[in-house]
Amino acid sequence: MKDKGFEKIFQIMNLMAFLEILIWKVHYDTYINEDGTYVLRINYNKCYDKILDYSRVHHINYPNLDIKAFKFTLKSKPYCLCYNAPAWFKKETSSKESQVVRAAFIDIKALQAMGIFIDNLLCNNTSMEIKEG
To answer: Which residue has the higher pLDDT, 20 or 5?
Structure first.
């Protein structure tokens, strides 16, 4: 992985989405906002500890920040549209129940312009099972 300091978290998240450790609509999702900006929403309260644990277990060098320091750093980044806005996410992977949580809103184009590869975070990574009736 390229070393981009703080932005390395997005590369780790991208890998975790590919491995289905982070799940669409539970930990992250995307949408196009009213200004036409393609936005990545991150449910950081649900996934941040998973990211840190994954980094430790797999010996990935990443700035080890607590959640408060992570949000403080994130809000100063040019690609961060909002670091603490309400968003709907599922409670659990298998749940149909949703809840409003605080989330980060990231400008995808601005992040990609920095050379950060996040293609696995841009699509639904849940398996679509066909139920036979």
So the answer is: 20
CA atoms within 13 A on the CB side of 4: 16
Quick one: tokens of 75? Answer: 């809000």
C-alpha–C-alpha distance, residues 72 and 65, integer Å: 10
pTM for the model stands at 0.86
Q: Between vectors from CA 69 to CA 67 and to CA 73, what angle results, nearest 5°?
A: 115
What are the helix (H) ranges across 3-107? Answer: 8-18, 44-57, 67-75
The answer to whether the Cα torsion of 43, 44, 49, 54 is positive or negative is positive
pLDDT digit string (tens) for 79-91?
999 999 999 999 8
* In the chain, domain spans: 5-121
